[in-house]
Ig-like domain-containing protein
Amino acid sequence: PPDITVEKTWVHASEGFDIDLVCIVHGDVNSEMLWYQNSFLLDPTDRRSMYSRGDKYTLNIRNFQQSDFGNYSCVADNALGRTKKYIEVSGRPGPAAFQSPAYSNYLDRYNLTYTIESIPPLDEIKLLYRKLMMNETYQHPGSWEDTILVPTLTRSDPTHFIMSHVIRGLSPNSVYEVMIQARNIHGWNEISDIHQFYTRNFDLTPNELEFVMSSISNSGYRRPFSSELSLQMLAACFTFVMLSFSAAKW
C-alpha cells in the first residue's frame, strides 16, 4: 500500500480565513488521493479545491466556516492497497512555544516569553511552574504552582500572539519547570511541553552569567541541560568557566 504522511496533524483555523491541508505520498506518486471530513467523502466546491504538485496533495478551504471544523483524513489508494492519515482542524489555540533563554539573569525571578497560535483573541492563560529538588543522588519535583493570567494581546504576526510574564519569588541557583495552557472562544488548547529554566547563582553577576553561558555554548553544548544533570554538575561548569574568566581579567 502507499506510504503517506501529513504535513501537520493539527491545523489551527478561524472563520473567514483560508487553510491548506497537505498529505505527502512517498514512492508511488500515481496513487489516487481522496479527502474526507468526519468520514464523509469530500468533493470540490466553490470554497474547496484539491490539487497535487509532485508528491504533495493539498486540500484548500477558502473563506473557512464553522461547519468546516472537524477531523479530516487523506486516503491514498493504489493497486496494492490504501493508506489513511488524519488531520484535526480546530479553532482552539495552538500549544505555547517558549522563546525565553533557559538561564535567568536574576536570582529570584524569570522573564518567561512565549508565543501562541490563535486567530481569535485569547481569553485566559494558565501558567504552572514548579521547582526541582536536586542533590547528588536524587531529584524530586515540587508541587505545581498555578497562576491565571489575563493575556496581553500583542501580535507577532496575524496568527500568533507573543506574551511575557515575570515569575517572581524564586530561589537562587535552582532549576524550575513551567507549562502554559491557553483558552480562546473555542476552548482550551493542549498544555504545552515542559520548559526548564535556571535561576542565577549568588556568585555570578548578569555579565558573568552571560560569559558562562556563552562559553558553555561555544564549547559545543548546544541543548539545554536535561533534568538529570544535578545542580552540583552545573555549579562545577560555572566554577571552571569562572576560573577562566578570572584568569582572563588578569
Remarks:
- The radius of gyration is 24 Å.
